[in-house]
């Protein structure tokens, strides 16, 4: 089997992405700075946006789905009076209005955009339509109609007013929510149009902007250690998943793809609690000496490996 070139670095880096580069360009930059063999990200950020972009290295890429489902917090500015092709300031203005909303009018509509709501993603998005990315179809000039889907907005607040044209919001959302769609739909509800003029992601699950590594695209990559010193353990994104402590022999069995019986006194107590919490048949994180060995499915007093981490802790 052909081996991937690069260093075996396993863990997460909380990148504070600047405005300008794409998420793919951030990955390329991190790969060059660290020399890591494998790099991925959780949760794309548009070039216009800044803020938290969690980057997975090596075996941590196997845990990306667990952070993609995490809650996200955004601070964003809506420019009233204009709607654009992309629902942000990068697009072409396609409609204008002289109307501007008052703070009271904005506050009155916010409950309509909070909770589980139906939302149509922007035409310029990474969603696939018959195998093609929606943004590729939109750039080609074809009609792009994306079906509405239910998303969760746990919190949406008006936090500031810059001037009559610009209002600042903070939103906490679930998976699949688009801030650009929120701006577009709020503008429509207010009868004045609207698009995102500035966007910053403040949090993704356990990752927060105040703890992010500010990735400088203008600086020369003179010190690899400067970035690798910020690598967090694989377990960072798995804090909410029940942890199952293993012996060395049990850890080795899982690494070989074999199931582990939960029959010792310690395991029986753990299993009883796991079942009492209604998690029977669910996922747990198997640890040896505090380090991730595998994601396992618990059922029938057995731990069956689902994803094994192939690295030396």
Describe this entry's structure for a reader.
By secondary structure, the chain is α+β, with helices and mostly antiparallel strands. The protein folds into 3 domains: 88 residues, 2-Layer Sandwich (Pseudouridine synthase); 133 residues, 2-Layer Sandwich (Pseudouridine synthase), CATH 3.30.2350.10; 68 residues, PUA domain (Archaeosine Trna-guanine Transglycosylase, Chain: A, domain 4). 21% of the residues lie in helices and 35% in strands. It is built from 8 helices and 19 strands. The strands form 4 sheets. Strands 1, 2, 3, 4, 7, 10, 11, 12, 13 and 14 form a 10-stranded mixed beta sheet that branches. Strands 15-17-18-19-16 form a 5-stranded mixed beta sheet, covered by helices on one side.
Helical content class: 10-25%
User: So what's the overall shape?
Assistant: elongated
Strand content: 25-35%
Number of strands: 19
At CATH level 3, the topology of the largest domain is Pseudouridine synthase
Q: Output the CATH homologous superfamily of the largest domain.
A: Pseudouridine synthase
The number of helical elements comes to 8
Supply database-style keywords.
3 domains; alpha+beta; 5-stranded mixed β-sheet; 10-stranded mixed β-sheet; Pseudouridine synthase; single chain; 35% strand; 313 residues; 8 helices; Archaeosine Trna-guanine Transglycosylase, Chain: A, domain 4
In short:
This protein has 313 residues and is an alpha+beta fold. The chain has 3 domains: 11-69 and 207-235, Pseudouridine synthase (2-Layer Sandwich); 72-204, Pseudouridine synthase; 241-308, Archaeosine Trna-guanine Transglycosylase, Chain: A, domain 4, CATH 2.30.130.10. The protein contains 8 helices and 19 strands.
């Amino acid at each position: 089997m052909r081996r991937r070139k690069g260093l075996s670095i396993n863990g997460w880096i909380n990148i504070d992405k600047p405005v300008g580069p794409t998420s793919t360009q951030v990955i390329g930059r991190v790969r060059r700075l660290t020399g890591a063999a494998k790099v991925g990200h959780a949760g794309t950020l548009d070039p216009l946006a800044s803020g938290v972009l969690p980057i997975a290295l090596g075996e941590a890429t196997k845990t990306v789905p667990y952070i993609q489902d995490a809650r996200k917090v955004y601070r964003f500015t809506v420019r009233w009076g204009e709607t654009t092709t992309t629902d942000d300031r990068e697009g072409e203005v396609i409609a204008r209005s002289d109307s501007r909303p008052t703070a009271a009018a904005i506050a009155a509509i916010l409950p309509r955009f909070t909770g589980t709501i139906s939302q149509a993603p922007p035409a310029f998005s990474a969603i696939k339509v018959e195998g093609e990315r929606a943004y590729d179809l939109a750039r080609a000039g074809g009609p792009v109609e994306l079906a509405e889907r239910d998303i969760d907005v746990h919190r949406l607040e008006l936090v500031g007013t810059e001037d009559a044209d610009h209002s600042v919001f903070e939103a906490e959302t679930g998976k699949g929510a688009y801030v650009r769609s929120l701006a577009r739909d709020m503008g429509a509800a207010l009868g004045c149009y609207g698009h995102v003029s500035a966007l910053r992601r403040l949090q993704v699950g356990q990752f927060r902007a105040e703890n992010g590594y500010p990735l400088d695209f203008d600086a020369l990559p003179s010190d690899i250690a400067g970035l690798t010193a910020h690598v967090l353990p694989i377990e960072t994104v798995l804090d909410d998943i029940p942890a199952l402590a293993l012996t060395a022999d049990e850890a080795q069995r899982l690494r070989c793809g074999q199931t582990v019986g939960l029959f010792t006194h310690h395991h029986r107590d753990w299993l009883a609690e796991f079942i009492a919490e209604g998690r029977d048949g669910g996922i747990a994180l198997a640890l040896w000496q505090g380090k991730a060995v595998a994601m396992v499915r618990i059922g029938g007093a057995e731990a069956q490996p689902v994803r094994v981490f192939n690295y030396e802790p």
